Amino acid sequence: MKQEIRTFIFDELIFVAEPENFSDDDDLLEAGLDSMGIMRLIMYIEEQFAVTLPDSEIDPDNVNSFNALEKWVLQHKK
Amino acid sequence: MSPILSPFLRQCTQSPDNIAFVEEDLSLTYAEFQTQIHKISTALKNKQIQTQCIAIALDRGILAASCIYSVLYAGGIYLPLDMKTPATRLSFIINDAQPAFIIGLGEPPTWLENSALWLDINELLQSDAQILSPVPVQTDSLAAILYTSGSTGNPKGIALSHQALSNFSTWASQTFELNPQDRIASLAPFHFDLSIFDLFSSLAVGASVYFIPAKFSFSPSRLTIWLSENKISTWYTVPSLLSFIALKGALDSTDLSHLKRLLFAGEVFPTDYLIKLANLLPEVELYNLYGPTETNVCCYWAVKREQLDPQQSIPIGQAAANAQLSIDALTGELQVQSLNNFSGYWQQGKLQPVEQTRYATGDKVSLNTQGEYCYHGRLDRMLKCSGYRVEPAEIEHCINQLAGIAQCAVVGIKDSTSGQRPAALVVLNAGASLGDTIKPLRQLLPAYMQPYKFLSVNTLPVLSNGKTDYQTIESLFKT
Question: Which of B355, B378, B401 is the last residue of a domain?
Fold first, then answer.
């Protein structure tokens, strides 16, 4: 799952010069992920992984790194 | 006296105990805000800043708002800096604007070459407040300079007069029937023209301005809860954020009974998201405001819910603020004559006045059968990214400065949520790697101007006349 989210973010949302050197803990918001990017990312994740991410949990802490995203999505994956 | 300050001063006399600003736990009444202005403007007056440009290096909030009012009070011109923009771009703006002073917090920042320009706001606030009346100005005296992306490759300053600001501000407070009970949410940074409404239309009528904490732009449902808890009645923002809220803001379970109106501008609101928002907020008036910074709002459309069709973009409506609109018969370009119009571009520390009173927007428009103006995109290459206008030439200028780049071309790729996003096609010098080459770009351009995709090719596609073939370049990014 993390790999698919990585591909989506780097292909569609932000550009980083060397994606292979972008760690799972690096800050995505600092790298340029903005509120519109977060919206598209959530829509992608919900569709791709058949999960519903509660509106109330959309927060920088849950989306600011690949590890945070994975943890958040797994909490809601049946 | 300045037509922007006089309605505010009337409110200070009539209702000094009304709340002017709220920022987190801090709130200021009109009287307290005025005292703060007296302190800062006393210090500024002693520095003879009349008709001079004063840059403000503070984030959106009460302190920055106090500085803006104080600069106007002392007869100066305020220039709000985007504190999120990279240092190199800030240095360019300072060198171009040549402000007499820069007001900030604490020690001068490292990017500032001449630290003698720096004034610490805390020191200004130490001055003994004298009850002063504002320095008299002419209505055509300049009040503000807002820097935006420039088609020549560098940022450019749009200079607005006291009359231009007050013409818009008065029109807005009357049209949207603002009153002292209104609570106006503010999220727009002060270098963005949406802030003119937040700063001036509000205080002209005795309403209260509530600064939205920046972190909430990433948390739509917390933002709507904040709107609810603070009993916000009015908010002027960008469509992309309203889309985010319509989709993910838990609007169906949040009590927004105090919300009377939402105004939006900066980009086209995708109709399907607007329908969602309109359905979730059936009682709220919605307004589509339109206009480049040079004209501020020159056209507006009160959303007619029954007219919304997901297959069609919404109109920009009818003339606003007594603007006279016309359409160039040949090109379809919208032209605007209005008291809102800018005075000229600010370059090398002075005003380059506009020669024509009619401003050609570069936007293609037409009239629909109801006599409403409809927007059909740009006649030039300008992009709209998350509400900001972005000139591809400015991005190209920065990319071309990078070692390893032979040529580049920037185009806009349509995005369902944020209008357009810049993408760059580059030709690298022999031996250069794409990753290493473009790394420094983050230090040159703000986030909303960063290309989200790069492609490297051997030569740029050109048309038979030798010009860059932007259409072909766009198609390369779509495959």
Answer: B378
